[in-house]
Amino acid sequence: MGSNPESLQLGNIAMAAKECCLSGFEWDGTPVGKEGKLGTNDSYIVGDNEDVAILVIADLFGWTFINERLLCDHYAKEADATVYMPDLYYLSPSSPHHMTLTSK
């Protein structure tokens, strides 16, 4: 993959992943954070502690996937921290349509 953000496609990343990495389920819940910016990157941000921060790097399902956001919510609450999950891959927000959903 080149450095051109437009060249990154979720489908290409998912195609390179092993099949076992593409199965799972969506967690129940509603994220409590908000979308904002970290530098110039779109980001999911949750928490309000100015002294403690956690940077989460999203997996191949991206920064908009509900599981990723609920995990950030959990970190923010348990660690009393502000959690930032930026879109480092410049992927268009999309559902994890490459995921094979399994039962919980």
Kindly report the oligomeric state of this protein. single chain
Kindly give the count of domains: 1
Number of helices: 2
Distance between the termini: 34 Å
Strand content: 15-25%
The percent range for helix content is 10-25%
Commentary on this structure:
The chain has 104 residues and is an alpha/beta fold. It has one domain (5-101). The chain is built from two helices and six strands. The chain has helices at residues 10-16, 66-79; strands at residues 23-24, 34-38, 41-46, 53-55, 82-86, 100-101. The strands form two sheets. It has a four-stranded mixed β-sheet, covered by helices on one side. The chain starts with 9 loop residues before the first helix and ends with a strand.
List the helices and strands and how they pair.
Layout: H1 10-16, E1 23-24, E2 34-38, E3 41-46, E4 53-55, H2 66-79, E5 82-86, E6 100-101
Parallel strand pairs: 1-6, 4-5
Antiparallel strand pairs: 2-3, 3-5
Q: Main attributes?
A:
104 residues, single chain, 6 strands, alpha/beta, 20% helix, two-stranded parallel ribbon
Brief summary:
With 104 residues, the chain is of the alpha/beta class. 20% of the residues lie in helices and 22% in strands.
